[in-house]
Amino acid sequence: MSDLIEVRNLGKTYRKATGLFNHKEVIALARVSFTLQAGETLAVVGETGSGKSTLAKLLVGIEQPDQGEIWYAGSQINCSEYRKTNQFIRYIFQDPARSLNPNQKIAEILHAVLRYSTVLSFDQREQKISQTLRLLGLLNEHANYYPHMFSGGQLQRVALARALILDPKVLILDEALTALDPSLRAQIVNLLLELQQNTGIAYLLITNQLRLVRHFADHTMVLHRGECLDYGPTAKIFANPVHEFSRKLINSVQY
């Protein structure tokens, strides 16, 4: 099976001011490599500041790498192609309320996504919006709601709708399930697993919820200070992590 995404030696360094004229370099990501195949979930775990969100932002073009390569479906992605790949690689942020315009109805938000990335007519967009809302367990009438009118679980479904309405091949979940209570998280996870089974979508799951990782992810990568310490099948990482930091991280959670 060919790789949907291949990342080769990806690196990112920031310059941080330490005084009026002085700066120091902070390595956010250091020569990280991995692959992601269709229908697969890769979990990226690590402490705050380990480089998890930096990795996600590099994959969707919010940030540009200093070194390394990102390949999608056999072609290398360059800066000019991020708009094109935005349809196939979608990003869900940790807080859906902050990522949605509070002054726009959900229909307006979803129409804008479709206008930007497709050539669908208004009627075709209306049909696509209705199909996507139903797919995620929402009603047609929800299209006329504002974000503040939804519960937390519904709002996460709206965020999923905005990402999935373009039928992406890869969905990046950047701590997108962390704020949900356990029952709502279980509902969203079951929905994501069903979507994956039906469509073959791949997930890059950024989280510190190791119980979720063990249940949800096919492969796991452990980041620490921008470096990849462990990477492989989730069952193998949890049973026999190579690096001491990975062992401490896994052993800190009682199952």
TrEMBL record:
Location within or outside the cell: Cell inner membrane
Keyword tRNA-binding: no
Pfam families for this protein: ABC_tran
Presence of the UniProt keyword Lipoprotein in the record: no
SUPFAM superfamilies reported for this sequence: P-loop containing nucleoside triphosphate hydrolases
InterPro entries: AAA+_ATPase, ABC_transp_ATP-bind, ABC_transporter-like_ATP-bd, ABC_transporter-like_CS, P-loop_NTPase
Keywords: ATP-binding, Cell inner membrane, Cell membrane, Membrane, Nucleotide-binding, Transport
Source species, domain of life: Bacteria
Gene Ontology MF annotations: ATP binding
Domain (ABC transporter) ranges: 5-250
Membrane topology: Peripheral membrane protein
Family in the record: Belongs to the ABC transporter superfamily.
Protein name per Swiss-Prot or TrEMBL: ATP-binding cassette domain-containing protein
Organism: Rheinheimera tilapiae
